[in-house]
Amino acid sequence: MTFDDLDVRKHQDEKEAVRSLLAASPLNPEERSAVRAEAEALVRTARRSARRQGVVEGFLQEFSLGTREGLALMCLAEALLRTPDEATRDALIAEKIGPADWAAHLGRSDNLFVNASTWGLMLTGKIIEVDEEARRDAAGFVKRLANRVGEPVIRAAVAQAIRIMGEQFVLGRTIEAALKRSRTEGYLCSFDMLGEGARTAADAERYEASYAAAIEAVGQASAGLGPEAGHGVSVKLSALSPRYEAVQEARVWSELYPRLVRLAAIAARRNINFTLDAEEADRLTLSLKILERLASEDVLANWTGLGLAVQAYQKRAPEVIHRLAALAETSGRRLMVRLVKGAYWDTEIKKAQMAGRDDYPVYTTKAATDLSYLTAAKALIEASPRLYGQFATHNAHTLAAVHRMAKSRGVKIEHQRLHGMGEALYAAADDLYDGITLRAYAPVGGHEDLLPYLVRRLLENGANTSFVHALLDERIACEDVVVDPMSAVEAAPDRHPRIPPPRHLYADRLNSRGVDLSVAPERDRLVKAARAVRPVPGGPDAVRSPVDRIAIGRAPEATEGEITAAFAAARRAQKAWDGLRGPGRAPILNAMGDTLEAHRDALVGLLVREAGKTLQDAVAEVREAADFCRYYAALAVRQFGPPLELEGPAGETNTLELRGRGVFVCISPWNFPLAIFTGQIAAALAAGNAVLAKPAEQTPLIAREAARLFYAAGLDEPLLHVLFGRGETVGSALVKNPHTDGVAFTGGTDTAFAINQALAARRGPIVPLIAETGGLNGLFVDTTALREQVIDDVMVSAFGSAGQRCSSLRVLFLPHDTADLIIEGLCGAMDALVVGDPADPRTDIGPVIDEAARAALEVHLARLHKEAKVVKVLPAPGGEGLFFGPVLAEISGPDFLDREVFGPILHVVRYDPADLDRVAGALSARGYGLSLGIHSRIEGFAERVRDLAPAGNVYINRSIIGAVVGVQPFGGEGLSGTGPKAGGPNALLRYAVERALSVNVAAQGGDPKLLSL
Ligand SMILES: Cc1cc2nc3c(=O)[nH]c(=O)nc-3n(C[C@H](O)[C@H](O)[C@H](O)COP(=O)(O)OP(=O)(O)OC[C@H]3O[C@@H](n4cnc5c(N)ncnc54)[C@H](O)[C@@H]3O)c2cc1C
To answer: What would the pLDDT profile of 563-620 be if each residue is shown by its tens digit?
Structure first.
């Protein structure tokens, strides 16, 4: 069976998807009213048994995430216990606890746990008992406490409270403890081993061992009961490989799959339920392929416990159920299918917007997800006995609907809830339905691993669309808590009004369209485009690919005569272009945005071959170029339209307008040969200038192609001249030319100095230089940071694009307490990187741009070997390609570097948090100010670092690369550039002159406006 074709509907238009849901109509009118009545009865009963409320519910009722206290607790819960050093713990506690109003929560909840948290946070040290003083004057007591933050007793009390809180959400720290508790409490469980996904092969090995032990223990405890009556285990495939990604499919088969088969074999031998959890939408197809292969494994023969979780919020959900039924049929194996709504909804929305998808893989309204759930549930029940339905929800309507569908068809099903949640609801269901089969999804693990899970649950259930949220809010009547999704969708079938399709994210321009590389045909198309760039005969002006040094085009250097002619033609054309004003010029820029997208595959192919870009980077670059065009078009309309009327006395009019300066020289670099080349030109054109553009020597072909597309989009050729050649010759001639009215430059700091001096030496009008240069970009991590997030963000920031971005991470600052742990993780994650042919979708790191670049990196590496501690060097592929294996080296401090090292070399500095001022000050003293990263849960820490090492672009708890046009305007200060930032609201101003006009209206005898007021 092929699953790749499922992806056709991955980003299906929401309207269309909702239409088919409504057409499927999973309940008839009679069933609808019966389900509603039952659901209301469930809500009433559940509300009455408040004492049996799960701890999550209790917690949320008291500490809603809409309150400062709820947020403070969530943040503390997420970070406190993994923070090893006392000083940082104190800082975290002080920041989160200090300003919150804990006294308001005192004694308000019957739930022991909630009170325990409150008291613990209020620092009794004894957790539950409160002293007399607190009883008399709670507010004052808390205030005094907040002042005492930093004393050991407070730290201990808060840590204890968080620990107590955490313990409510896990069944046990170990599988043995969890099994014991499930026996005492009489639950049937699916155990989940907590933890983030693997980032290294060692992580994957550790998770495999822990799953294997759990499966054995669960198997022993459930001996003879079988997959339906006995406990089971849930497994996250992302825990079994650092590269569980569609683009790494081959490695999934060679690395992840064998681990999974080993685990499944134990589960089969023990005859228990073994469910593959559902993760991100990008992984759905791959997970189905994995399941299909497992289903046909001989070692797993006759086992009926194999299962998969399916997310109803995905538009593909009903189809997935049909495919699973077909798979059960063809493999002759009964499959267990857990239907959930899905836990990553907000992430899917964000990812699709960032990636410029046509639509989302998930629905944008809660009601559509609920309806999709019912549609998939019906299909799942009807596929019995080939599929065994396990229905996971805490929503009374969903529960009642599923129960009715199964009962009316005489199908046995299982209900599922999360440990710590849904207790009252399922107790009510057990009463109403005279017994149900119920399993709890039970997390097992230590506090350190628990907290991200906990935070997800709090966020999910704290949302105001959540059923649990409404269930808990006594102000909402039972009838209103229960929502029939069919009626809701019929009444409002459209997408969520505040969640436009990703392409329409911005009010006045289109978001650029991305390519989904997790979809096989999309990948294949781009690979074909890269292979289509044909070799040409070599020669002195040949352009050679850094991938294999094969000539792929020619670009003869511009002559002096050509430069003179270009200036003359540009000057002649500029006046009329300027006269069009912004609204007249914008259509051409918008057309260029569309033209770039229409030619995206060919541009990607060229970027891969000429600049050595990976497919992912090449797509991002085409998108950025299109974004520049559309953003500057919108700015041109806004800023270069009718003159701005200014305030003034009666009898005169005063206006200010922006006009083009004349002929702009744009000098762009090879590292963004399309985006920066196009961006500079689009800015200059938008402001009403004509342009002479000199692309980098290494990447003239893509520049030629971009210019061709400008003309195809309707730009008159005299307005844009592309002049190939070296900086020392052509670049210098352009800058020195007396007809140059301004220069936009992106490149090295030394060249910027040279341009600045050349401009200063000219006698004539003083013209602007807009320069974006390099940076010594640092990322500061404190001990509250999450290891996995740090690893992910450092890997892409330092090694993405082979470290050849001006924003790339150069120096990582790690606190002594967690440095070893993070460095070990980084080295493991480096091992999982692929260095090689950028046309191969598996490749993470392509070549560096030319021999000189590689030689400079080699010289620097030799110095690191001599004067620093080289921790890791990844081998680079041999052959003709200009590859350089990523390096991680520890240096003593930022003083070690006196300039930017442009490539995949990450320098690590260990620091003592008490010494932060000195260390960050030393980075700042290098004089650059481009990108800065901070990983911390303490806002005060982030503020301090920003203050100590100011930079043009600061990124907190994310990667430090990939600034998006209009979203993160990009550009540095100090040695890193002049501003204004590219892709920002002020970007066009320096490309323009300002003209003020004052007309004395009274000169003609009087001010008619004044007289007719
Ligand atoms: C036993 C069990 C196992 C689970 N295993 C997994 C798993 O493997 N993978 C996984 O991803 N999740 C899993 N979950 C988590 C599960 O996805 C959430 O708990 C579930 O979505 C909550 O749904 P509900 O019916 O309880 O609550 P409801 O309040 O009825 O639904 C909330 C859900 O609706 C969806 N939603 C919310 N707002 C919108 C919106 N605007 N547009 C569209 N949809 C929206 C989201 O999925 C949200 O979680 C599991 C849950 C349980 C109980």
So the answer is: 999 999 999 999 999 999 999 999 999 999 999 999 999 999 999 999 999 999 999 9
Q: 933-955, pLDDT tens digit by residue?
A: 999 999 999 999 999 999 999 99
What are the residues whose beta carbons fall under 8 Å from the beta carbon of 151, sequence distance 6 or more?
none
Residue nearest to atom 39 of ligand 1 (CA): 366
Distance (Å, whole) CA 16 – CA 553: 46
Q: Residue with structure tokens 């101003």? A: 989
Q: What is the secondary structure of 664-704 as a DSSP string?
A: EEEE--SSSTTHHHHHHHHHHHHTT-EEEEE--TT-HHHHH
A 10 A CB-CB count for 537 gives: 7
Our answer to whether residue 806 is catalytic in this structure is yes
Q: Which residue has the tokens 């392509």?
A: 846
Q: Residue 980: is the preceding peptide bond cis (ω within 30°)?
A: yes
Looking up tokens 């192919």 gives 605
Q: Which residue has a Cα nearest atom 50 of ligand 1?
A: 340
Provide the pLDDT for residue 160. 67
CB 832 within 8 A of CB 201: yes
Tell which atom from ligand 1 comes closest to the C-alpha of 190. 1
Assess contact for 396 and 483: CB atoms under 8 A: no
How close is the Cα of 393 to the center of ligand 1, in Å?
7
Residue 342 Cα to ligand 1 midpoint, Å, equals 4
The first and second tokens of residue 219, run together, are 């198997």
Nearest Cα neighbor of 397 from 374, 376, 379 is: 374
Contact 495, 365 (CB under 8 A): yes
> What is the rounded distance in angstroms from the CA atom of residue 262 to the CA atom of residue 300?
10
**Residue 611 φ/ψ, nearest 5 degrees:** -110, -5
Which residues have any ligand 1 atom within 6 Å of their CB?
277-278, 309, 311, 313, 338, 340-345, 362-366, 369, 392-395, 398, 416-418, 441, 460, 465-468, 496
Q: How far apart are CA 111 and CA 120, in angstroms?
A: 14
Find the 440 Cα to ligand 1 centroid distance in Å.
15
Picking from 304, 250, 244, the residue whose alpha carbon sits closest to that of residue 275 is 304
> Can you read off the two tokens belonging to residue 718?
């005299």
Q: Whose CA is nearest to atom 33 of ligand 1?
A: 341
Question: Residue 408 above 70 pLDDT?
Answer: yes
Tally Cβ neighbours within 10 Å of residue 1008: 10
What confidence tens digit (pLDDT) does each residue in 733-745 have?
999 999 999 999 9
Q: Per residue in 537-563, pLDDT tens?
A: 988 899 999 999 999 999 999 999 999
Q: Kindly state the average pLDDT of the residues 33-52.
A: 88
Q: Which of 478, 629, 666, 806 is catalytic?
A: 806
Alpha carbons 899 and 673: distance in angstroms, whole number:
23
52-56, 217-221, 721-725, 923-927: which range is least confident on average? 52-56
Ligand 1 center to 312 CA (angstroms): 8
Active-site residue (options: 228, 772, 890, 900): 772
Place of tokens 């109509």: 25
Give the atom of ligand 1 at the shortest distance from the alpha carbon of 440.
1
Question: Three-state SS string across 627-664, please?
Answer: HHHHHHHHHHHHHCCCCEECCCCCCEEEEEEEEECCEE
Closest atom of ligand 1 to 467 CA is 29
Query: Concatenated DSSP letters for 853-876?
Result: HHHHHHHHHHHHHHHSEEEEEPPP
Which one, of 863, 793, 783, 785, lies nearest residue 826 by Cα?
Answer: 793
Please tell me the residue having the least CA distance from ligand 1 atom 8. 277
Query: Nearest residue CA, atom 41 of ligand 1?
Result: 365
Would the pLDDT of 109 be above 60?
Answer: no
Query: Helix or strand or coil: residue 310?
Result: strand
Instruction: Look up the pTM and report it.
Output: 0.94
Choose from 63-72, 74-83, 460-469, 997-1006 the range with maximum mean pLDDT.
997-1006
Residue 800 CB neighbours (<10 A): 23
Report how far ligand 1's centroid is from the alpha carbon of 791 (Å).
28
